[in-house]
Specification:
heterodimer, A: mainly alpha, MetI-like fold, globular, B: alpha/beta, four-stranded antiparallel β-sheet, 28% helix, binds adenosine-5'-triphosphate, binds magnesium ion
């Protein structure tokens, strides 16, 4: 039988899915043991026990100086910034995506501008943001928004323009005004796409967050990683990276579930 | 009455339609035929207000057509006529939602319930009872077109424009939907203009068959000469909305005549057709 026709059973599928993760952990374990056998004070690949130690120290022991549980304080700080930025970017994408997609006049006004500013490398703006907005939360949130909103807007505009022309004509023959067509025909059909757009931008959002935190912050996951880097504390960095990855993966899955639950018809279209 | 006066349509250099003049009487059922690319859809877009004539004018009862689609002209396209994110019931109700609720675009609970009765009656009329809560993707192609008809008819349009509405359906389903189409035309105060590729369909349904053709179809002439009206055939014996038995179809061809005898002859029914969807179940 051809390889393209061979399909794994459910259990095989599960095992195959776990395999790369298991290999990674094993490779790490072996590497760590080998390096530590050579040089017990090696810091590059700490033993699993040291990782657990570090997690315990960061997450379940109060910091002696601040009395905080640093891991959770960092998580909260980062997620706060991220959540705010994603909220603002989503709102911007929705409003501008619909305006630019639906109205030719607004498209003529803004589409070229959007195309241009979405090409500005956001990290190059970071110094400007720090100078203009200070080193506080505003500049970090702004960086993320600037980094992801233009792409989300353009994605939504395309989605609006992709709506079959027939639908908009039909809505007009049913007496819909621009506003009514916007909220009853266009909006419900692009919301699922907005969620997908958000999912795709999660990675970039984390990138900008960590970049901003690395340069200037007093808490946050990115801040901590770059802080302990000075002491080569790989035992802290590895769990933090894994945790960031996990958060991003959970957010991704949660958003996908949300879309399926709230917009069940989006799945029907795929089936036919 | 729809009056088309010496209409031309050009897209840039390309002349698509030229010198189109015709009158369409109230309650006529006009089938528009012609080779692919001769401008049938373009003509329908002109009637719909989606496109404007480059020259000439189109009037409805003496008034120039609004330059954008309005509820007095309903439409069913070959595809994409229904909203994929709305259930069957909501698809039919959306017209009522629009007219009853300028801001929210959705009726309040009480008035929506009354409108839903009307919508259900209409859904039953097109043979979709029991599917009210399904989404269009869960319906077959024929069912989606029936839904599109119900959706358009709830606005009680004066004119119904159909662009190859049944072109994608298989022959059996098409025959069913022809019966439905005839009944709707007979029972509703409706003028129908339908584009079709199927001559049989044209002569089964229509009171009048109009053909578009490019008189000069040499490649060199394609751009500079558009299609014009090449024949205008009144179906014989004349069908009159509300009078003809919708299921007797012994049709023969009449000689092509310019002056639309289908509407000129025969007594017209002057009491309006019984309200189609208003009846409470
Ligand atoms: N927006 C447009 N811009 C330029 N040319 C156009 C446009 N729309 C239609 N045309 C041209 O007008 C001509 C008629 O198109 P139209 O869609 O009306 O044909 P049709 O009779 O409906 O064909 P079919 O039977 O294949 O649906 C075609 O040659 C097409 O290339
Ligand atoms: Mg066409």
């Amino acid at each position: 039988m051809r390889f393209i026709n061979l399909k794994p059973s459910r259990t095989t599928q599960l095992m195959l899915a776990v395999l790369p993760f298991a290999l990674l952990v094993i490779a790490y374990g072996v590497g760590s043991v080998v390096r530590l056998a050579e040089n017990p004070s090696d810091k590059l690949l700490p033993a699993f026990a040291s990782l657990v130690d570090a997690i315990n120290r960061m997450a379940f022991t109060a910091d002696v100086r601040s009395g905080e549980y640093l891991f959770w304080a960092d998580t909260l700080a980062s997620l706060g910034r991220l959540g705010m930025a994603l909220g603002i970017a989503t709102a911007i994408a929705l409003v501008f995506g619909m305006l630019v997609g639906m109205f030719p006049y607004i498209r003529a006004l803004l589409a070229p501008f959007l195309a241009a500013i979405s090409m500005v490398p956001p990290l190059a703006l970071l110094p400007i943001l720090f100078i203009a907005l200070g080193l506080g939360e505003t500049s970090k949130v702004t960086l993320i928004v600037i980094g992801i909103a233009p792409i989300m807007v353009r994605d939504l505009v395309l989605r609006v323009l992709d709506l079959p022309r027939e639908q908009l004509i039909k809505a007009q023959t049913l007496g819909g005004s621009s506003w009514q067509i916007g909220i009853r025909v266009v909006l419900p059909q692009i919301l699922p796409r907005l969620i997908d757009g958000l999912r795709l931008q999660l990675g970039s959002a984390w990138l900008f967050l960590i970049a901003a935190e690395a340069i200037s912050a007093d808490s946050g996951l990115g801040y901590r990683i770059f802080l302990v880097r000075r002491y080569l504390s790989m035992d802290v960095i590895f769990p933090y990276v894994a945790w960031i990855t996990l958060l991003a993966v959970v957010a991704n899955v949660a958003l996908d579930l949300l879309r399926r639950r709230v917009f069940p018809w989006t799945e029907l279209g795929k089936a036919t | 009455m729809i009056r088309v006066e010496n209409v031309w349509k050009e897209y840039g250099e390309q002349v698509v339609l030229e010198r189109i003049s015709l009158d369409i009487a109230d309650r006529a059922f006009v089938a528009l035929v012609g080779p692919s690319g001769c401008g049938k859809t373009t003509f329908l877009k002109l009637l719909l207000g989606e496109e404007q004539p480059s020259e000439g004018r189109i009037t409805l009862d003496g008034q120039p057509l609004a330059p954008e689609p309005t509820p007095e002209r309903g439409v069913v396209f070959q595809r994409y006529s229904v909203f994929p994110h709305l259930s069957v019931l909501d698809n039919v109700l959306i017209g009522r939602d629009f007219s009853g609720s300028p801001f929210r675009g959705r009726l309040g609970r009480v008035s929506r319930r009354a409108a839903a009765d009307e919508a259900r009656a209409l859904i039953a009329e097109v043979g979709l009872s029991g599917n009210e809560d399904k989404y269009p993707a869960q319906l077959s192609g024929g069912m989606q077109q029936r839904l599109a008809l119900a959706q358009a008819l709830i606005m009680r349009p004066r004119v119904l424009l159909l662009d190859e509405p049944f072109g994608a359906l298989d022959p059996g389903i098409r025959a069913d939907i022809h019966v439905l189409m005839k009944r709707l035309w007979n029972e509703t105060d409706l003028t129908v203009v339908m584009v079709t590729h199927d001559m049989r369909e044209a002569f089964t349904l229509a009171t009048r068959v109009i053909a578009f053709e490019r008189p000069r179809n040499a490649p060199a002439d394609r751009v500079r000469y558009g299609a014009s009206l090449s024949s205008d055939i009144a179906v014989w014996p004349p069908r009159v909305a509300g009078l003809t038995d919708p299921d007797s179809t012994p049709y023969t061809f009449a000689s092509p005549g310019g002056d639309d005898p289908a509407q000129a002859t025969g007594p017209r029914r002057d009491d309006p057709a019984p309200p189609l969807a208003g009846a409470k179940p």
